[in-house]
Design a protein that fits this description.
The protein is mainly β and 111 residues long. The protein has no helices and eleven strands. It has strands at 3-7, 10-12, 18-25, 34-39, 45-51, 57-59, 67-72, 77-82, 91-97, 100-101, 105-109. Strands 2, 4, 5, 6, 9, 10 and 11 form a seven-stranded mixed beta sheet that branches. The chain has a four-stranded antiparallel beta sheet with strand order 1-3-8-7, with no helix packed on it. It is globular and about 40 Å long. The mean pLDDT is 97.
Length: 111
């Protein structure tokens, strides 16, 4: 069964950090691009970051310099390290591989 499962969300104060994790299974992980997408309250889906099979990365402008995506091909894991979080980063964060999506993990940035 092809699936991805996110974890690591929570409540954090502005300026704080969180690391999201995504466990992938059921497909040849190391050959696939992985992505993080988020949905802020009352907004549509918003692409956040990609990591390709060659480990090259890309980020939306609003998170550049604050978020870092990485992958562990031995553990079939993808991570999103989020630093200097802002209230506008509050969202449900999804890990995706093509049309395969996880259930999402809530990140709330609030004082």
């Amino acid at each position: 069964q092809v699936q991805v499962v996110e974890s690591g969300g929570g409540l954090v104060q502005p300026g704080g950090s969180l690391r999201l994790s995504c466990a992938a299974s059921g497909f040849p992980f190391r050959t696939h691009k992985m992505s993080w997408v988020r949905q802020r309250p009352g907004k549509g889906l918003e692409w956040v970051s990609d990591i390709n099979s060659d480990a090259s990365t890309d980020y939306r402008d609003s998170v550049k310099g604050r978020f870092t995506i990485s992958r562990d091909n031995n553990q079939n894991m993808v991570y999103l390290q989020m630093n200097n979080l802002k209230p506008e980063d509050t969202a449900v964060y999804y890990c995706t591989m093509g049309s395969v999506w996880g259930q999402g993990t809530q990140v709330t940035v609030s004082s």
